[in-house]
Amino acid sequence: MKKKDELILFIIAFIIIFFSILAKPINNLDEIWNYNFARNIADGLIPYKDFNMLQMPLLPIISGIILKYTFNEIIITRILAGFLCATIMLLVYKILKILDFKKELAVLITGIITLLMLEYYCLDYNFATLLIVLLIIYNEIKFYKRDKNIIKANIKQDILLGIMAGIAILLKQNTGILVIIAMLANKLFFIKNKQDLKEYLKSFLFRLMPILILIGLMIIYLIYNNCFNDFVNYSIKGVSEFSN
């Protein structure tokens, strides 16, 4: 019954969000930029080397692959935006539920947030990063409620959270760094003794390992495509000069 309720909520959120996006004129620069990044990748161009891009390339790569094997039209990215943002709203509901909000109140709050955000929904790395942040929050709460011990290291849990944080930095570098810092450091506030410190260090390493692996894979991708220096110029040095 719980899964059925969540599926119904997701479908309703998707319908509301998708038709809201569909009704908009194509004049949102973020939407146009993100579609064009994906279209360029679908057409075989290399980010940073063949076209200018400030953010990390994971979202354009994913959406570019989908465009390549479906239809290379902006309607596809609008459908993807509907799925992305509806999933965000589902996670808001699930977080409220795991925090013991009554179902009716959780649905009401989720609905209000959905409607308040209608003007802004699009396929965008900020929404993708928000999805990852909510996934981390939901799983942190779920693991704590199950184990009743926030310090305890758990290989599967910590690796899963590390993968999520690694994905966050591959979506947007500055926000991703903050997500990683928060996810690696949040247990520090609960250390009370030497045993807690040992557990924290084990958890820290299990979380850090997949982050470094994902960053390493992205560096390999950039070097393989001979665009690492261009990436540094745009995505690292360029961030301080970005004005619009």
Detailed description of the structure:
By secondary structure, the chain is mainly α. It has helices at residues 2-22, 29-42, 58-69, 74-98, 103-116, 125-147, 155-171, 173-185, 194-224, 228-237. Helices cover 74% and strands 0% of the residues. It contains ten helices and no strands.
Topology (SSEs and partners):
Blueprint (H helix, E strand, L loop, with lengths): L1 H21 L6 H14 L15 H12 L4 H25 L4 H14 L8 H23 L7 H17 L1 H13 L8 H31 L3 H10 L7
Helix pairs in contact: 1-4, 1-5, 2-3, 4-5, 4-6, 6-7, 7-8, 7-9, 8-9
Salient structural properties:
10 helices; flat
User: What value does the Rg take, in angstroms?
Assistant: 20 Å
Query: What is the count of β-strands?
Result: 0
Derived structural class: mainly alpha
Main beta-sheet strand count, sense and barrel state: none
